[in-house]
Recover the amino acids of this structure.
Protein backbone atom coordinates (compact mmCIF):
# COMPACT_ATOMS: atom_id res chain seq x y z
CA UNK A 1 0.00 0.00 0.00
CA UNK A 2 1.50 3.32 -1.09
CA UNK A 3 1.48 6.63 0.72
CA UNK A 4 -0.71 9.25 -0.91
CA UNK A 5 -0.20 12.90 -1.75
CA UNK A 6 -0.63 14.26 1.76
CA UNK A 7 -1.22 12.90 5.26
CA UNK A 8 -3.78 13.96 7.80
CA UNK A 9 -7.13 13.08 6.24
CA UNK A 10 -9.47 12.37 9.11
CA UNK A 11 -10.77 8.90 9.82
CA UNK A 12 -13.69 8.04 7.59
CA UNK A 13 -16.67 5.73 7.82
CA UNK A 14 -16.81 1.93 7.79
CA UNK A 15 -16.80 2.28 4.02
CA UNK A 16 -17.85 4.79 1.42
CA UNK A 17 -18.21 3.50 -2.14
CA UNK A 18 -17.75 6.07 -4.90
CA UNK A 19 -18.73 5.22 -8.46
CA UNK A 20 -17.74 7.16 -11.55
CA UNK A 21 -21.20 7.03 -13.08
CA UNK A 22 -21.15 4.15 -15.54
CA UNK A 23 -23.74 1.62 -16.58
CA UNK A 24 -24.73 -1.45 -14.59
CA UNK A 25 -22.10 -3.44 -16.45
CA UNK A 26 -19.41 -0.82 -15.90
CA UNK A 27 -20.06 -0.54 -12.16
CA UNK A 28 -20.37 -4.28 -11.50
CA UNK A 29 -17.16 -4.67 -9.48
CA UNK A 30 -17.98 -1.78 -7.15
CA UNK A 31 -21.62 -2.85 -6.88
CA UNK A 32 -20.58 -6.37 -5.94
CA UNK A 33 -18.40 -5.10 -3.09
CA UNK A 34 -21.16 -2.83 -1.81
CA UNK A 35 -23.65 -5.71 -1.91
CA UNK A 36 -21.36 -7.75 0.31
CA UNK A 37 -21.22 -4.87 2.78
CA UNK A 38 -25.01 -4.52 2.88
CA UNK A 39 -25.45 -8.30 3.19
CA UNK A 40 -29.04 -9.07 4.23
CA UNK A 41 -29.75 -5.60 5.59
CA UNK A 42 -32.23 -3.09 4.21
CA UNK A 43 -30.79 -0.88 1.48
CA UNK A 44 -32.14 2.67 1.67
CA UNK A 45 -32.22 4.34 -1.75
CA UNK A 46 -32.18 8.10 -2.34
CA UNK A 47 -33.04 8.77 -6.03
CA UNK A 48 -33.53 12.53 -5.57
CA UNK A 49 -31.14 13.48 -8.36
CA UNK A 50 -33.58 11.93 -10.86
CA UNK A 51 -36.61 13.96 -9.71
CA UNK A 52 -38.54 15.17 -12.74
CA UNK A 53 -36.80 12.72 -15.05
CA UNK A 54 -37.86 9.34 -13.68
CA UNK A 55 -40.42 8.36 -11.08
CA UNK A 56 -39.23 6.83 -7.80
CA UNK A 57 -40.83 3.56 -8.92
CA UNK A 58 -38.81 3.56 -12.15
CA UNK A 59 -35.64 4.32 -10.20
CA UNK A 60 -36.33 1.46 -7.80
CA UNK A 61 -36.91 -0.95 -10.68
CA UNK A 62 -33.47 -0.03 -11.99
CA UNK A 63 -31.82 -0.49 -8.61
CA UNK A 64 -33.51 -3.84 -8.04
CA UNK A 65 -32.35 -5.06 -11.44
CA UNK A 66 -28.83 -4.05 -10.39
CA UNK A 67 -28.69 -5.49 -6.89
CA UNK A 68 -31.13 -8.44 -6.88
CA UNK A 69 -28.59 -10.57 -8.79
CA UNK A 70 -26.00 -9.57 -6.16
CA UNK A 71 -28.14 -10.77 -3.26
CA UNK A 72 -29.61 -7.46 -2.08
CA UNK A 73 -33.41 -7.60 -2.30
CA UNK A 74 -34.62 -5.54 0.67
CA UNK A 75 -34.81 -2.02 -0.75
CA UNK A 76 -36.53 0.98 0.82
CA UNK A 77 -36.83 3.84 -1.67
CA UNK A 78 -37.36 7.32 -0.26
CA UNK A 79 -38.97 9.58 -2.90
CA UNK A 80 -37.75 12.65 -1.00
CA UNK A 81 -36.76 13.72 2.50
CA UNK A 82 -39.97 15.56 3.33
CA UNK A 83 -41.24 14.46 6.71
CA UNK A 84 -38.75 11.61 6.84
CA UNK A 85 -36.98 10.78 10.05
CA UNK A 86 -33.33 10.52 9.07
CA UNK A 87 -32.74 8.51 12.23
CA UNK A 88 -34.20 5.58 10.28
CA UNK A 89 -30.79 5.26 8.69
CA UNK A 90 -29.43 3.87 11.94
CA UNK A 91 -31.46 0.71 11.26
CA UNK A 92 -30.42 0.34 7.62
CA UNK A 93 -27.90 -2.06 6.14
CA UNK A 94 -26.67 0.49 3.62
CA UNK A 95 -27.47 3.75 1.84
CA UNK A 96 -27.38 4.19 -1.95
CA UNK A 97 -27.40 7.75 -3.30
CA UNK A 98 -28.06 7.63 -7.01
CA UNK A 99 -27.07 9.71 -9.98
CA UNK A 100 -28.80 12.40 -12.00
CA UNK A 101 -28.67 16.16 -11.54
CA UNK A 102 -26.16 16.96 -8.80
CA UNK A 103 -27.55 20.43 -8.04
CA UNK A 104 -31.03 18.99 -7.53
CA UNK A 105 -29.65 16.27 -5.26
CA UNK A 106 -27.57 18.62 -3.12
CA UNK A 107 -30.48 21.03 -2.80
CA UNK A 108 -32.61 18.23 -1.30
CA UNK A 109 -29.85 17.21 1.09
CA UNK A 110 -29.11 20.78 2.20
CA UNK A 111 -32.76 21.61 2.88
CA UNK A 112 -33.08 18.49 5.04
CA UNK A 113 -29.77 19.14 6.89
CA UNK A 114 -28.79 15.62 5.86
CA UNK A 115 -25.09 16.10 6.59
CA UNK A 116 -25.70 15.97 10.33
CA UNK A 117 -27.21 12.48 10.24
CA UNK A 118 -24.72 11.25 7.62
CA UNK A 119 -21.86 12.27 9.89
CA UNK A 120 -23.56 10.47 12.76
CA UNK A 121 -24.03 7.17 10.92
CA UNK A 122 -20.89 7.10 8.77
CA UNK A 123 -18.94 5.04 11.31
CA UNK A 124 -21.34 2.11 10.89
CA UNK A 125 -23.33 2.52 7.66
CA UNK A 126 -21.94 1.53 4.24
CA UNK A 127 -22.71 4.44 1.90
CA UNK A 128 -22.64 4.28 -1.89
CA UNK A 129 -22.60 7.35 -4.12
CA UNK A 130 -22.96 6.88 -7.84
CA UNK A 131 -22.13 9.80 -10.16
CA UNK A 132 -24.04 12.75 -8.63
CA UNK A 133 -24.31 10.68 -5.46
CA UNK A 134 -20.53 10.40 -5.32
CA UNK A 135 -20.00 14.10 -5.98
CA UNK A 136 -22.24 15.19 -3.09
CA UNK A 137 -20.25 13.08 -0.63
CA UNK A 138 -17.18 15.23 -1.27
CA UNK A 139 -16.42 18.73 -0.04
CA UNK A 140 -17.94 20.62 -2.98
CA UNK A 141 -19.87 19.94 -6.17
CA UNK A 142 -17.88 22.51 -8.13
CA UNK A 143 -16.40 19.43 -9.79
CA UNK A 144 -19.59 18.82 -11.81
CA UNK A 145 -20.46 22.36 -12.92
CA UNK A 146 -19.43 21.46 -16.48
CA UNK A 147 -21.81 18.51 -16.51
CA UNK A 148 -25.14 19.52 -14.92
CA UNK A 149 -27.44 22.54 -15.25
CA UNK A 150 -28.19 24.37 -12.01
CA UNK A 151 -31.93 24.33 -12.65
CA UNK A 152 -32.78 24.72 -8.96
CA UNK A 153 -30.77 27.90 -8.55
CA UNK A 154 -28.51 26.42 -5.89
CA UNK A 155 -26.19 29.07 -4.47
CA UNK A 156 -24.09 27.10 -1.97
CA UNK A 157 -22.09 24.31 -3.58
CA UNK A 158 -20.63 23.03 -0.30
CA UNK A 159 -21.51 19.34 -0.15
CA UNK A 160 -21.67 16.67 2.55
CA UNK A 161 -17.88 16.57 3.07
CA UNK A 162 -17.67 12.98 4.29
CA UNK A 163 -14.26 12.39 2.70
CA UNK A 164 -11.97 14.39 4.94
CA UNK A 165 -11.98 17.47 2.73
CA UNK A 166 -11.54 15.60 -0.56
CA UNK A 167 -13.81 16.20 -3.55
CA UNK A 168 -14.98 13.83 -6.29
CA UNK A 169 -14.72 14.21 -10.08
CA UNK A 170 -17.07 11.75 -11.82
CA UNK A 171 -17.17 10.66 -15.47
CA UNK A 172 -13.44 11.39 -15.54
CA UNK A 173 -11.63 11.45 -18.88
CA UNK A 174 -8.03 12.49 -19.66
CA UNK A 175 -9.42 15.52 -21.50
CA UNK A 176 -10.62 16.82 -18.10
CA UNK A 177 -7.10 17.56 -16.87
CA UNK A 178 -7.17 21.26 -17.67
CA UNK A 179 -10.46 21.72 -15.83
CA UNK A 180 -9.14 19.67 -12.91
CA UNK A 181 -5.96 21.72 -12.66
CA UNK A 182 -8.03 24.90 -12.61
CA UNK A 183 -10.26 23.45 -9.87
CA UNK A 184 -7.28 22.43 -7.75
CA UNK A 185 -5.70 25.87 -8.11
CA UNK A 186 -8.80 27.36 -6.52
CA UNK A 187 -8.64 24.97 -3.57
CA UNK A 188 -6.31 24.86 -0.58
CA UNK A 189 -4.57 21.53 0.08
CA UNK A 190 -7.38 19.61 -1.56
CA UNK A 191 -7.45 15.98 -2.66
CA UNK A 192 -9.54 14.99 -5.64
CA UNK A 193 -10.78 11.50 -6.51
CA UNK A 194 -11.06 11.31 -10.31
CA UNK A 195 -13.28 8.40 -11.30
CA UNK A 196 -13.89 7.11 -14.84
CA UNK A 197 -17.31 5.75 -15.73
CA UNK A 198 -16.10 2.17 -15.36
CA UNK A 199 -14.09 2.85 -12.20
CA UNK A 200 -14.62 3.64 -8.56
CA UNK A 201 -12.99 3.62 -5.16
CA UNK A 202 -13.74 2.31 -1.70
CA UNK A 203 -12.78 4.74 1.05
CA UNK A 204 -12.32 2.86 4.32
CA UNK A 205 -10.84 4.76 7.22
CA UNK A 206 -7.64 6.31 5.88
CA UNK A 207 -7.24 3.97 2.92
CA UNK A 208 -8.55 4.27 -0.62
CA UNK A 209 -8.78 1.25 -2.92
CA UNK A 210 -9.61 1.24 -6.59
CA UNK A 211 -12.59 -1.01 -7.35
CA UNK A 212 -13.58 -1.09 -10.98
CA UNK A 213 -12.44 -2.05 -14.45
CA UNK A 214 -10.31 1.05 -15.11
CA UNK A 215 -7.80 2.94 -13.00
CA UNK A 216 -8.96 5.77 -10.77
CA UNK A 217 -6.79 8.73 -9.79
CA UNK A 218 -6.07 10.73 -6.68
CA UNK A 219 -5.00 14.24 -7.54
CA UNK A 220 -3.55 17.02 -5.45
CA UNK A 221 0.00 18.22 -5.07
CA UNK A 222 0.90 14.98 -6.87
CA UNK A 223 -1.10 12.53 -8.94
CA UNK A 224 -1.49 8.85 -8.09
CA UNK A 225 -3.00 6.36 -10.50
CA UNK A 226 -4.66 3.43 -8.78
CA UNK A 227 -4.96 0.32 -10.91
CA UNK A 228 -7.98 -1.90 -10.20
CA UNK A 229 -7.50 -3.51 -6.80
CA UNK A 230 -4.63 -1.23 -5.81
CA UNK A 231 -4.84 0.67 -2.49
CA UNK A 232 -3.22 3.73 -1.00
CA UNK A 233 -3.12 5.07 2.55
CA UNK A 234 -3.90 8.73 3.05
Amino acid sequence: MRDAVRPGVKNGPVAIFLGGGGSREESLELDREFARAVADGVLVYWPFAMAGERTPHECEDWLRATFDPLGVSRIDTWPDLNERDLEELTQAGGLYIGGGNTFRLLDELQRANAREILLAVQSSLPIYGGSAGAAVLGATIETICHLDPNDVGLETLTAMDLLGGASVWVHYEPADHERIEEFLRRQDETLLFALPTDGGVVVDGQSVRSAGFSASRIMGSHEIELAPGEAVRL
